[in-house]
UniProtKB/TrEMBL annotation:
Organism: Vigna radiata var. radiata (Mung bean)
InterPro entries in alphabetical order: AA/rel_permease1, CAT_C
Location of the protein in the cell: Membrane
Name the UniProt record assigns to this protein: Cationic amino acid transporter 7, chloroplastic
Keywords (A to Z) from UniProt: Membrane, Transmembrane, Transmembrane helix
GO molecular function: amino acid transmembrane transporter activity
Bilayer disposition of the protein: Multi-pass membrane protein
Chief location of this protein within or outside the cell: membrane
Single GO cellular component term: plasma membrane
Length: 582
């Protein structure tokens, strides 16, 4: 295209000279549901085949959440934070996850496209905010998947009694952290890449089989724990000098434990990226997303109770609680630790499969918006899958997993993902109370900013102020202010949009609670997480300024983008091209 900003070096330099003007035009440009469901989706050529039902989504959600991380989080949260009350920590964290899942569900039902949070933010806060969140999500997926793939080698080795060091090749000339070549991890990533490229339906079947096997192993661990354990371990520590009772560290310990184990619920967001391939979005998405979160919460609570019944909380191994409880036993139960290793291996495969499905669909829809090369947006006409995005990210993940010894816990997700959860909760409120061009956005924006600021103050007080009466008073005041701000907004600002099919109940309370909790959890992360987030965000900003804004501007000029403000496109039960006026 002659008018392209990238047709020649001269054209590109000319485009760079117009960067401020183009940024002003494109950075805050808002897409519409109609565009996302029609013109933008058409850029992929072939449409993705609608083959998934509610039980596929439930299975994908369980597979994405219940990875090997739960075998780690339970021990640390019990030993260091909550004690026997860790099952309440899991219940609280599950409630938080469910509130956030509601926000995703409203968008996914109304706009069933493969872009997940990227698309939701693009129709709410504009192109730049969507690109920043999408870029961080994709990088987060790739790095986490590489770490999980290398973890598969360790758990598989534990399952068959062979040290993972024997499966990795050490190259002394390479720097530390990059000198252990993991061929098994690469093979696993490439094999899963082939599966997700071949068919989404077959990928779902594979996931259901692996998830069923994983749940069987979890059920076995739960039964063994309840069978061999003692109820006195819920109140009596092994060392009488340690705090006793069901709440050895008080309510604060329970909430600290909830903040820690919440990261074990990450994974349901990947289900929202499958919305474009769901047969009946209105029925299947709410059941699939919420149902998977509820089932996982029950499983986690039972696992926590089983572990607590098996051992006093101060004897639980913080790093590998279940396998350590049985390894080295002289009473014939040492084999259980190998069974746990097998179950964890299945959990790694399911979480890796779901995450790689999600990352490919994020990249596909980002490619549709032209902020990355549109080559990523192509859907293969025979398989109806985003082959280009799947293959590229699969090879990239495999390359990182081959060399990089990523010291990341299997349950740990970067600040980027929690930030996206925070943004989606803000977006669902904004979209309910603001209609582009017809209502004043400032009351809603003022509420979102002031409420987030109050949540930040609460978090900082919780984290840095010493325990005592002053801290309790400051926390109470912050909580009362947050409730007052929320109630004032609820009474004074009317909703301008009602969801046609499914919406978050008790608006704006549920998404506001989600905002508050996500800010609180963001405050629980360590310094290196913020450093990594800042680094990747800076790289993303540079990429947007030097490429994305110009590609997006070119697409706008050649008619790839159209504006249909005020129209909401709904795709339900196979009905295409239906619009509703707001």
């Amino acid at each position: 295209m002659d008018s392209s900003s990238f047709s020649s070096l001269r054209a590109y330099l000319r485009a760079l000279s117009h960067t401020p003007t183009r940024l002003a035009r494109r950075a805050l440009s808002i897409s519409t549901s109609y565009d996302e469901m029609s013109h933008v989706r058409a850029r992929s050529g072939t449409t993705m085949r609608k083959t998934l039902r509610w039980y596929d989504l439930v299975s994908l959600g369980i597979g994405g959440m219940v990875g090997a991380g739960v075998f780690v989080t339970t021990g640390r949260a019990t030993r260091l934070y909550a004690g026997p009350a860790v099952l309440l920590s899991y219940a609280i964290a599950g409630l938080c996850a469910l509130l956030s899942a509601f926000c995703y569900t409203e968008f996914a039902v109304d706009m069933p496209v493969a872009g997940g949070a990227f698309s939701y933010l693009r129709v709410t806060f504009g192109e730049f905010a969507a690109f920043m969140t999408g870029a961080n999500l994709v990088v987060d997926y790739v790095l986490s998947n590489a770490a999980v793939a290398r973890g598969f080698t360790a758990y598989l080795g534990a399952a068959i009694g062979i040290s993972s060091s024997k499966w990795r090749l050490t190259v002394p000339s390479f720097p530390d952290g990059f000198n252990k070549i993991d061929v098994v991890a690469v093979a696993v990533v490439l094999l899963i890449t082939l599966v997700i490229c071949y068919s989404t339906r077959e990928s779902s079947v594979v996931n259901m089989i692996l998830t069923a096997l994983h749940i069987l192993f979890i059920a076995f661990v739960i039964m063994v724990g309840f069978w061999r354990g003692s109820w006195k371990n819920f109140t009596e520590p092994a060392n009488p000098e340690n705090p006793g009772g069901f709440f050895p560290h008080g309510a604060a310990g329970v909430f600290k434990g909830a903040a820690y184990v919440y990261l074990s619920y990450i994974g349901y967001d990947a289900v929202s990226t499958m919305a474009e391939e769901v047969k009946d979005p209105v029925r299947d998405i709410p059941v699939g997303v919420s149902g998977s979160v509820i089932i996982v919460t029950v499983l986690y609570c039972l696992m926590a109770a089983s572990m607590t019944k098996l051992l006093p909380y101060d004897m639980i191994d913080a790093e590998a609680p279940f396998s350590a409880a049985f390894s080295g036993k002289s009473d014939g139960w040492g084999w259980v630790s190998r069974v746990i290793g097998v179950g964890a291996s299945f959990g790694i495969l399911t979480s890796l499969l779901v995450a790689m499905l999600g990352q490919a669909r994020y990249m596909c829809v980002i490619g549709r918006s032209n902020v990355v090369p549109s080559w990523f947006a192509r859907v293969h006409p025979r398989t109806s899958t985003p082959v280009n995005a799947s293959a590229f990210l699969g090879i990239f993940t495999a390359a990182i997993a081959l060399f990089a010894d990523l010291d990341v816990l299997l349950n740990l997700v970067s600040i980027g993902t929690l930030f996206v959860f925070y943004m989606v909760a803000n977006a669902v409120i904004y979209r309910r109370y603001v209609a582009a061009g017809t209502s004043n956005p400032w009351p809603t924006l003022s509420f979102l900013c002031s409420f987030s600021f109050t949540a930040m103050m609460f978090t900082l007080i919780w984290k840095f102020v010493p325990t005592g009466g002053a801290k309790a008073g400051m926390l109470s005041v912050s909580g009362i202010i947050a409730i007052a701000i929320l109630q004032l907004f609820h009474c004074m600002v009317p909703q301008v949009r009602k969801p046609e099919f499914w919406g978050v109940p008790f608006m704006p309370w549920i998404p506001s609670i989600s905002i508050f909790l996500n800010v609180f959890l963001l405050g629980s992360l360590d310094g290196p997480s913020y450093v990594r987030f800042a680094f990747f965000s800076a790289v993303a900003v540079l990429f947007y300024v030097f490429y994305s804004v110009h590609a997006s501007f070119d697409a706008e000029g050649d008619g790839s983008f159209t504006a249909k403000n005020g129209e909401i496109h709904v795709d339900s039960k196979g009905i295409e091209d239906q619009t509703f006026k707001v």
